[in-house]
Amino acid sequence: MGVKEAQRMADEKKLDLVKISPNANPPVCKLLDYGKYRYEMQKKEKEAKKKQKVTEIKEIRLSPSIEGHDLQVKANNAAKFLKAGDKVKVSLRFKGREKDYTDKGVLVMNRFAEFVGDVCAVEKKPELEGRNMTMVLAPKN
Fold first, then answer.
1. pLDDT confidence of 115, banded at 50, 70, 90?
2. Which residues contact 95 (CB under 8 A, 6 or more apart)?
């Protein structure tokens, strides 16, 4: 059908002539109420946005001289975050002479990873960056 004829039909029915796929040969057009079409598309986008989950990164701070029970409590909090679908960044700060005992920090991080091992996977292994050691945990699928 010609463009002029299609436009005449759209005017008669008081609708808009909308190109659905302009790159096709010949281009495909449709007669519809463009305002209503745009409204429905915006509504679909809003629904899709509501359903998507944004992952956050929660942080848990440790120290190299943390006691076992305190470590367990922090691991339980991390497990809650992981079950909710968030990632967890575990950071350990060395103060003063603690910097000389980074191996102790690695042990603490590994123990922490063992406590939450059933609900997470280690995304980034413990790494020393200056005075901080960080590790990132992601939820298991």
1. very high
2. 63, 131
Q: Where are the domains of the chain?
A: 3-50, 57-139
Tokens of 21: 């796929």
Q: What's the confidence (pLDDT) of residue 94?
A: 92
Which overall architecture, per CATH, does domain 57-139 show?
A: 2-Layer Sandwich (3.30)
What is the sign of the dihedral through the CA atoms of 63, 67, 68 and 69? negative
pLDDT, mean of residues 128-139: 93
Q: At what angle do helices 102-115 and 68-83 cross, to 10 degrees?
A: 50
Q: Does domain 3-50 have CATH number 3.10.20.80?
A: yes
